[in-house]
Amino acid sequence: MPATESNAQPQKPYAVVAGVSMRELLASCAAADAVSTPPRLPDPELSGPPARHREAA
Q1: Following DSSP, what letter does each residue of 1-57 receive, concatenated?
Q2: Closest by Cα among 18, 38, 36 to 28
Q3: How many degrees, rounded to 5, is the angle at CA 28 between CA 18 and CA 20?
Q4: Which pLDDT score, from 0 to 100, does residue 39 have?
Q5: pLDDT of 41-57, one tens digit each?
Q6: CA distance 24 to 28
Q7: What whole-number distance in Å separates Cα of residue 48 and Cα of residue 42?
Q8: What are the two backbone dihedrals, phi and then psi, of residue 25, each rounded to the nearest 5 degrees?
Q9: Residue ranges of E strands in the chain
C-alpha cells in the first residue's frame, strides 16, 4: 500500500453543532463579554465631593 493512501475518514472543515440557534450563540457571547469585562472607573468630573444639604428645621 502506498504511503499516500489512508483508511482514515476525511476531516470535516468545521464542527457541526446541532440545536444551537444563532440568537442563543450571540446571547451567550454577549453574556460572556459582560461578565469578563471589569467595571468602568468612575468619571473624575462627576465624582467630586458630596453636595452639602441644609439641615431640616
Answers
A1: --TT---SPPPPSS---TT--HHHHHHHHHHHHHHHSPPPPPPTTT--PPPP-PPP-
A2: 36
A3: 10
A4: 86
A5: 887 777 666 667 777 66
A6: 6
A7: 10
A8: -65, -45
A9: none
Long-range Cβ pairs for the range 9-16 (8 Å, 24+): none
How many angstroms separate the CA atoms of 57 and 54, rounded? 9
Residues 1, 27: Cα–Cα separation, whole Å: 50
Per-residue pLDDT of 2-43, as tens digits, reads 556 666 677 767 666 578 899 999 999 999 999 999 888 887
> What cell was used for 4?
499516500
